[in-house]
Amino acid sequence: MYYNVDLLAILAAAFGSLVLGWLWYSPKVFGTAYQKLQPHIKREVSPEQMKKEMIRGMIVMFIANMIQASVLYFLVFITRAGSVAQLMTIVFLTWAGFNLTGISVDTVWKGQSPKLIIIDGFFSLFSSVLMMFILLLIL
Questions:
Q1: Residue 43 φ then ψ, to 5°
Q2: Would you kindly state where each structural domain of the chain is located, as residue ranges?
Q3: CA distance 54 to 35
Q4: Rounded CA gap, 105 and 97, in Å?
Q5: Within its chain, how far is the Cα of 96 from the centroid?
Q6: Could you tell me which residues come within 8 angstroms of residue 32 by beta carbon, excluding any fewer than 6 positions away?
Q7: What's the rounded Cα separation, in Å, for the pair 72 and 76?
Q8: Residues 6+ away with beta carbon under 8 Å from 135
Q9: Could you read off the pLDDT of 102-128 as tens digits, one per residue?
Q10: Considering the entire predicted model, what is its pTM?
């Protein structure tokens, strides 16, 4: 079976999620609260080290976003979802079944605050919704 993949749509969706993450975890939104809930985050690092860690994290996040956008693209294609309700069902099911459960288990096993589940969980939901809308706009 042949699938015509729109790489531009996937790249745009991945980039959109990256921008949302930059905003979401900025100090003006949830960044300060997020850092306070993460006792293992190094507070005193050199600017050079922080820059290296930030670049590495953004590269990993972009690759993960590409994978997620590709999966959403593929699910829309194979299910032939056409209505907004069908598309949001795909987003919600993939988010609840994979993202939220992974975030929850990871947070609990690390002994972190349940508030992180809310911050990270809602980010992943909004990120998935944004990716789906970008995919739809370009497709």
A1: -85, -30
A2: 7-138
A3: 14
A4: 12
A5: 13
A6: none
A7: 6
A8: 9, 10, 13, 69, 72, 73, 76
A9: 999 999 998 889 999 999 999 999 999
A10: 0.87
